[in-house]
Amino acid sequence: MLPESKIDSSEYTDLNRVIGWFITLRWIAFLGVVVTLLIVNFLLNYVLPYSILYILTSVLFLINSFFTYYYAVVKQKNLLRKEMSVFFHVQVCTDYLLLFLLIYFTGFLENPFCYYFVFHIMLTSFIFPASVVFIYVTILVVVFIGVAFAEYLQLLPHFALKVARISPGLYEDLVIIRVVGLCSTIIISAYLITSIKNRIVERGKRVEVELNRYKSLDKIKSNFILQVTHELRGPLAALKGYHEMIMKGITGEIPEKTRDTLKKANQRTSNLLTMIDEMIDFAYMRSEEEVEYTKTELNIKEALDYNINQVGAFSRQKGIRFIPSCPRELKIWSNRDLLNIILNNLFTNSIKYSPPDTKVLINAIDNGKEVELTVKDEGYGIEPEELDKVFEEFYRTRKAREVEKDGTGLGLPIVKRAVESLGGKITVYSEINRGTSFHITLPKDK
Fold first, then answer.
1. Is 140 exposed, middle or buried (0-12, 13-18, 19+ CB in 10 A)?
2. Please, what is the Cα angle at 285 between 374 and 351, to 5 degrees?
């Protein structure tokens, strides 16, 4: 009993067409068997059990008539997926059995048409997964070996492939049948392989169409997120500004208890703004991922100083010092927005996930055709088993969730996407409680 198998196909309608294709091939095979038997019987005078062979041919006709009626009339060429799986198994088992009996009664291993089993294996491979195919192949091999030994031990009769007359033309008769068998094998193989190839190409085109459709929908989704987050950012930034104004006493003196509450509200607003900024960057890069970004000549030291200043208030609050090391004349052809996204995210992360009163070392060097940039903190570090996942979208390490409950897990994926958009590479090294180091290489020229 064969296990129930999942049919390897991405298109339901294509499977129904394949069933019709199988039935058509079986009608062609039926006509081929009839013509071959007539030629062998009346022209070549081979001695064979023709009554049995004609019965088997009639059985093939009746079975395929039933298959045709069931497929075209009963099911209207539209079988359910579970029905298709069963129907394919029934057809394959029927074909294997009838072909084996036809081969056995016409010389068995002497018969050059025994290689026709290759076609059935090819067709089976096109429909079923490898495990099911090898079950069929194993059964077929076992049966072939078993019958061959049974004939050798004379437990089963051998129906020799021989002509009625013994004459000097015997060799020529055998050559004819072998040439026909070889040529038909080659022709049918070419037909089946090209047919399967054409179906694969057609399926590949459909997959490409669906992929393009998916990309279009994904871009629409990213643009929608971009618009929504932009609309949300304005009011939140204004709210944060009001919090800071009140805490500075611009609206008058406030009680200490109210100040503490405002500090917490301001911190939550800041966290929410950071999340929105990450979502804006992520959506922007997703919507423009196939666009070649405009590059201009940028001074690396100026970019470092600018982004260090951007996170200055946050770093001073935790007592974290940034120590940059970069030649003043080092320049690079890059996109300003993407470079700022990279630096701002790495600097912000180094502050978030480092204990107070620590250092962040930034080193930029000219390496010929590339600029190498290293950002190394003295933070909590990343577990070895989590290092491979930190660039996955929405992934947050265990320590990151402990330090800050709020977060999108988009910061490092955004950095990686920005680096790759600029034609660079990024790697990360980390030790628990000893810090994390990000190494970035970016092409220096256009």
1. middle
2. 40
- The yes-or-no verdict on residue 323 having pLDDT over 90 is yes
Interval 65-76: pLDDT, tens? 999 999 888 888
The arithmetic mean of pLDDT across residues 346-353, rounded, is 90
Q: Tell me whether residue 5 is in a domain.
A: no
Q: pLDDT tens digit string along 358-380?
A: 999 999 999 888 999 999 999 89
Of 165, 192, 219, which residue is a domain's last?
Answer: 165
What is the residue range of 42's domain? 12-165
pTM above 0.85, yes or no: no
DSSP string for 266-289: HHHHHHHHHHHHHHHHHHHHHHTT
Give the CATH number for residue 317. Answer: 3.30.565.10
Domain membership of residue 194 (yes or no) is no
Residue 367 one-letter amino acid: N
Alpha carbon distance 33, 25 (integer Å): 12
Domain assignment present for residue 436? The answer is yes
Per-residue pLDDT tens over the stretch 384-425: 888 888 888 878 888 888 887 777 778 888 899 889 888 899
Sheet bearing 425-431, strands edge to edge = 321-325, 359-367, 370-377, 435-443, 425-431
pLDDT in tens, 2-14: 444 444 444 455 6
For residues 404 and 399, give the distance between their C-alpha atoms in angstroms, rounded to a whole number: 9
| pLDDT at residue 178 tops 60 | no
Are 129 and 8 contacting, i.e. CB atoms less than 8 angstroms apart?
Answer: yes
Cα distance between residue 410 and residue 427, in whole Å: 17
What is the three-class DSSP state of 330?
coil
Tell whether 17 and 161 lie within a shared domain. yes
Structural domain tally of the chain?
Answer: 2
Residue 160 CA from chain centroid, whole number: 52
**Which 3 state secondary structure label does DSSP give 331?**
strand
178 inside domain: no
The per-residue DSSP string of 218-260 comes to: HHHHHHHHHHHHHHHHHHHHHHHHHHHHHHTTTT----HHHHH
Alpha-carbon dihedral 85, 87, 91, 94, rounded to 10 degrees = 110
Report strand pairing: 359-367 vs 321-325.
parallel
The count of C-alpha atoms lying within 13 angstroms of the C-alpha of 73, restricted to the half-sphere facing its C-beta, is: 6
Domain closes at, from 124, 145, 165: 165
